[in-house]
Please model this.
Amino acid sequence: MARKKVLVTGGAGFIGGNFVQYMVNKYPDYDIYNLDLLTYAGDLTKHKEIEKKDNYHFVKADIADRDAISALFEKEKFDYVTHFAAESHVDRSITDPEIFVVTNVLGTQVLLDAAKAVGGVTKFVHVSTDEVYGELDFDPTTFFTENTPLQPNSPYSASKASSDMLVRAYHKTFGLPINITRCSNNYGPYQFPEKLIPLTISRVLNDQKIPVYGDGKNIRDWLHILDHCAAIDLVLHEGANGEVYNVGGHNERTNLEVVKTIISILGKSEDFIEFVTDRLGHDKRYAINPTKLEALGWKPTYSFESGIAQTIQWYLDNKGWWEEIISGEYQNYFEKHYAL
Ligand code: NAD
Ligand code: TDX
Model:
């Protein structure tokens, strides 16, 4: 049987990077192609363990570069596409929305066109976010389902919702075999330290203030990266054509609870918490109903308690990785965004 070729876009980032490693190790008879532009959020050092394996391949390209993407699809004739590449940070989308439209909307459309033109792609999985549904209030009995109307509130989530609509349209109009996944907040190894959990861990370890937006009562529903990778793998192989699947494991926490948990595990003082000006348009609460994915056979393996302990240990064991990042371009971003 011919080897399957899997394109993973954004495979130098946090989620795509973990997914590339998961797939390279789990499927030695698949060829995994990591396509990434290596923006500030992408780095290849995380792939030291797998880059010598025969089934791992790297291609540096911009998903919005139509000529490069068409040529790659023509050459490789992928069987599967898993699309993670994006501008992913809400705060950056508030200060500089345009690149979010170019990468997230136009880039997705370029990939869809290439898949449609070449043919042979048996599944295109578009990795989206629960943020496209907007926000929930604090009533703990309410959840996002796949039928919740899309009401994105930030330039980031608006760009992701737009890309979701294009993916849906290429299925309805051209018959492209697709799935859309919408997951809650991920955490785990190799997350860029501008996101809440790695930002808190790295700053606590350096005895620095932790900026908590507003009153810290906003709620996120935390999903361990490895549970997310298993979900994408399942949807790629078993997802019903054209369907949307929400991914989340019922791990709702306020931001303040998350920060206090990390401080407590690291044995530091809560005096490091600093309440700062709230994010513009800050969504109150996200919470996923994952019943549809569970019916396909998915079950999370991490509770928030086991996942956060594993993640903190990873950041302790891999200081070199994140220290390198926070000493680079990120430092300028941090100083501009926070006045701490
Ligand atoms: P990330 O920012 O860590 O990584 C994004 C990757 O995409 C980087 O490697 C970057 O270099 C690459 N990239 C950016 N622009 C590109 C372009 N034009 N061409 C090619 N590559 C490009 O993001 P992440 O947290 O890993 O998120 C991955 C996907 O999952 C995104 O689509 C995001 O919307 C979605 N998502 C993330 C979360 C989360 O909690 N992190 C939750 C829900 C959904
Ligand atoms: O310094 C901070 N202080 C703070 O209180 C930061 C960076 C965040 N926060 C708050 C804002 C959010 O309520 O913590 C919560 C989590 O913030 P982020 O880590 O920036 O994640 P969020 O905005 O929820 O979006 C994430 O999950 C959904 C990802 O970045 C998105 O790509 C994904 O779609």
Remarks:
- The mean pLDDT is 97.
